[in-house]
Every structure is written in structure tokens, then in C-alpha cells.
Amino acid sequence: MSNNSDDFPPPPARRPRYGVDAPAFPAVTGAAGLACGLAAGRRRPGSNAMLAAATVLLAHTGVYLHTTLRGKLRVWERELGRAGLKGDERLLDMGCGRGAVLIEAARRLPRGRAVGVDLWSGKDQSGNRPEVTLANAAAAGVADRVEVHTADVTALPFPDGSFDIVTGALALHNIPSREGQYRALDEAVRVLRPGGQLLVADFWFAARKYAAHLEEGTLRGLGPGYWYGSPLLGITLLHAVKGGRRRG
């Protein structure tokens, strides 16, 4: 019997795991849907209403989980492809979490750097810890071009003009005050070089406020693949170029 390691297939590579956004939300809607379904099965007065409620709640939960586990990854793959990266840029991801956007960006930066900042709230994303993000980067084969920092996005610890592109995915609305959200936007613009790109995805109603504050950039809905349960919680992308003009 040969002991040559070439005789055996290599172990499968571990894939990055990005967790669930705001995990309490689908847990609650899913549990409520199951409860309504059980109530409908008892064939009592109001069963039809309970069945309808169960259908809506479980469908909402399914759409939510698809977005957080698959849909948003595909959308960011598309949007980063549209950004026209050359591969040597410095990118900052605000509220990077477990690295979904950060790592997709790093794949496109073989000669660049992808930097993530977060306060690592488990309420906003399950299992949100810096060591998990770095492990995901290693699993994706991009650990050499990724770094993470514990930092508040309203006071970024970087000099002016440090980055070619700044991204953010559903991070800013977690800041409790509108003033704090606007400070984070101002910080993002501050650390961008002239001509650098800002790509911020958030709920449509939040993204409109961000665009009004910056007074520049474009807004574009990102489609059903980025609905957190329904169109009422759909995601819009704000794309701005530092020094550019508002185009709509």
C-alpha cells in the first residue's frame, strides 16, 4: 500500500461563514409564524386568519434568511464588479461584521488592502467577533490583504484621504442618532481621496437621508435579493464620488 499523500484527495477547504444579520428578527418572525400555523391547525374560529398570518410570517422569514445568507453576497459581488477596481486600491469597509463585503472586496485587490472596522455587536450580526472575520479571510485565501480594527465609524482612526473606496452594508442605521449617522458619512468622505468612491447600502428610507445630507451621489434599489423579508425593508445603494456632483 502506498503512503504517498498524492493518493488521497486534499481535505475540503472551509468556506467563510458570515452568520445572520440581526438574528433575533427572523427568530421572532419564524416562531410567530409557526405558532400561527399550529393555531390554524386546531380548526377553531379564526383559523383562516391564523393560516394567513402564518403564511405571511413564514414567507417573510424565508426571504429574510435568503437575503442574509445568499442574496446580499451576490448583490455585493455584482456591485463591487461595477466599481471598476484595478486591484491596487485601499478599501475601507465600515461595520465590516464577519467580512461578507470586506472579503469579496479583498478578492479583487491582489495588490491592495481591505480594511474593516466594527464595534462587534452580536445583536447586529450573529457571532460577530474580529477573530471570526480574520478566520473567514483565511478561509477565502485573502488573509494577507485584510486587516480589521475595533473602531467607531463616527470617529475613524485614519488620516484624511487614506482610501480609494469606502463601503458600508447596513451599518449606519444601527447608530442610534441621526447626527451620529451623518458624522459617520462625513468621516467616510474625509478618509476618501479626491475622486474616491463611497458605496453605502442601507434601508431605502435611510439611504435617502444619507444622500440628502451629502447633497451628492446616486440612489439605486438593489432588488429582491436584498429584501429583509419584504420590499418594505428593501435595500438601496448610495453611490457617491468625492468631489463629484449629484446625478439624481
Please tell me about this protein's structure.
The protein is of the alpha/beta class. It has a domain at 86-241: Vaccinia Virus protein VP39 (Rossmann fold), CATH 3.40.50. The protein has helices spanning 24-40, 47-82, 100-107, 130-139, 178-191, 204-214, and strands spanning 90-94, 113-118, 146-150, 163-169, 192-203, 218-221, 235-241. Strands 3-2-1-4-5-7-6 form a 7-stranded mixed β-sheet. Strand 2, helix 4 (130-139) and strand 3 form a beta-alpha-beta unit. Helix 1 packs antiparallel against helix 2 (47-82) and helix 2 runs parallel beside helix 3 (100-107). It is globular, with a radius of gyration of 21 Å. Mean pLDDT is 91; it is low at 1-12. GO terms for molecular function: S-adenosylmethionine-dependent methyltransferase activity. Residues 92-199 form the Methyltransferase type domain. InterPro entries: Methyltransf_11 (IPR013216), SAM-dependent_MTases_sf (IPR029063).
Give me the CATH superfamily of the domain at 86-241: Vaccinia Virus protein VP39
Order of helices and strands: HHEHEHEEHEHEE
Radius of gyration: 21 Å
N-C termini distance: 70 Å
Tally the helices: what do you get?
6
Strand order of the largest sheet: 3-2-1-4-5-7-6
Name of the CATH first level of the domain at 86-241: Alpha Beta
At the fold tier of CATH, the topology name of the domain at 86-241 is Rossmann fold
Protein name: Methyltransferase domain-containing protein
Organism: Streptomyces albus
GO molecular function, one term: S-adenosylmethionine-dependent methyltransferase activity
Keywords: Methyltransferase, Transferase
